[in-house]
Design brief:
Blueprint lengths: L7 E3 L1 H9 L3 E4 L13 H15 L3 E8 L2 E4 L6 H5 L4 E2 L4 H6 L4 E4 L1 H11 L3 E3 L10 H4 L4 H8 L3 E4 L8 H11 L3 E4 L18 E3 L2 H13 L6 E4 L10 H17 L7 H12 L4 H24 L1
Parallel strand pairs: 1-4, 2-3, 2-7, 5-6, 7-8, 8-11, 9-10, 9-11
Antiparallel strand pairs: 3-4, 3-6
Bound molecules: pseudouridine-5'-monophosphate and manganese (II) ion (MN).
The site of pseudouridine-5'-monophosphate (PSU) has 18 residues, from helix 7 and helix 11.
Length: about 300
């Protein structure tokens, strides 16, 4: 997309921060809608992430569509609306939502990097990215998050890809697309609720400043795509891979039995895993989102130095 910055409506706070060159962190709104977390955890997630970004010295910019316009940053009175969004928008859905004057659309990772790019926001915090689904060799279900990261110069801070995906294929596909993947203080691709996956990462960084330097180098060589930063869930919130494995299997079974495919797959699988873990997966999801928000803010601050 090569439209102007004016295509995105900024909140007053985000507009002022961008104008002054102060650090801003984009946020997606799917995770804080019912597609990502059941109420009231969606609001809790929003508040924790918002606070974490501010505490680290940056300004949060929630993205989505409101009243037929792409937005980056919400005014106080718009928060409830974006939390209640009932249209999950991937990047390819944005033109339709705009043409139809959608009242509220929530952005996935792919839509968020597209909006952040237009708005001139370099850094973005999510939970876990979408990726190559298990069985993709027959379903072809590969999240548009991956292609979008290759096309928009945004640093995406995640706890890896959601662990019900095919993580080895996700890493392979990121390599095919040429997306740099950097582990933050880790050498293995994190598995969302778990810190490890057994899959080695090509690169690791020890500080936010190091990640900012990689992003600056990417810009200097004309790399027009993004960078994926993999930040493992905090140790005290982790659900070890062996413990979550059964819940993942049963969550995938439920979604398959109900025929949840395409954009419906990920929300259904997440909800089924929450049910199978007696909601234990939810606090883990909140903790990793908060931790990603803090790291993204630190990177955004480092980029302004
Ligand atoms: N991370 C979370 N919860 C989520 C998502 C990410 O912790 O709900 C969302 C993101 O918006 C991501 C989307 O882009 O799931 C992936 O959807 P799909 O698999 O349909 O591409
Ligand atoms: Mn998909």
């Amino acid at each position: 997309m090569s439209a102007q910055r004016s295509a995105v409506r900024l909140s007053r706070e985000v507009e002022a921060a961008l104008a002054d060159g102060r650090p801003v962190v984009a946020l997606e709104s799917t995770i804080t809608s019912s597609f990502g977390l059941p109420a009231p955890h969606n609001r809790d997630c929003y508040e924790r992430v918002d606070r974490a970004i501010r505490a680290a010295g940056a300004i949060p910019a929630v993205t989505g569509v409101l009243d037929g316009r792409m937005i980056a940053g919400v005014e106080q009175e718009e928060i409830e609306r974006i939390l209640a969004g009932d249209w999950k928008l991937a990047e390819r859905d944005l033109p339709i939502a705009l043409a139809r004057g959608a009242a509220i659309g929530v952005s996935t990772v792919s839509a968020t990097v597209a909006i952040a790019h237009l708005a001139g926001i370099r850094t973005f915090a999510t939970g876990g990215i979408g990726g190559v689904h298990r069985g993709a060799e027959t379903t072809f279900d590969i999240s548009s998050d991956l292609g979008a990261m290759a096309r928009h110069p945004v640093i995406v801070v995640s706890a890896g890809a959601k662990a019900f995906l095919d993580l080895p294929k996700t890493i392979e596909y990121l390599e095919t697309l040429g997306v740099p993947v950097v582990g933050y203080r880790c050498s293995e691709f994190p598995a969302f609720w778990s810190r490890t996956s057994g899959i080695s990462l090509p690169h690791r960084a020890e500080s936010a400043a190091e990640i900012a330097a990689i992003a600056a180098a990417a810009t200097s060589v004309g790399w027009g795509g993004g960078i994926l930063v993999a930040n493992p869930i905090p140790a005290d919130a982790e659900i070890p891979a062996a413990e979550i494995a059964t819940a993942i299997e049963s969550g995938l079974d439920v979604a398959a039995r109900e025929g949840a495919i395409g954009p419906a797959a990920t929300p259904r699988i997440l909800a089924a895993i929450a049910a199978a873990t007696a909601s234990r997966s939810i606090p883990a999801n909140l903790a990793l989102a908060e931790s990603n928000a803090t790291l993204a803010a630190e990177i955004a601050v480092a980029l302004t130095r």
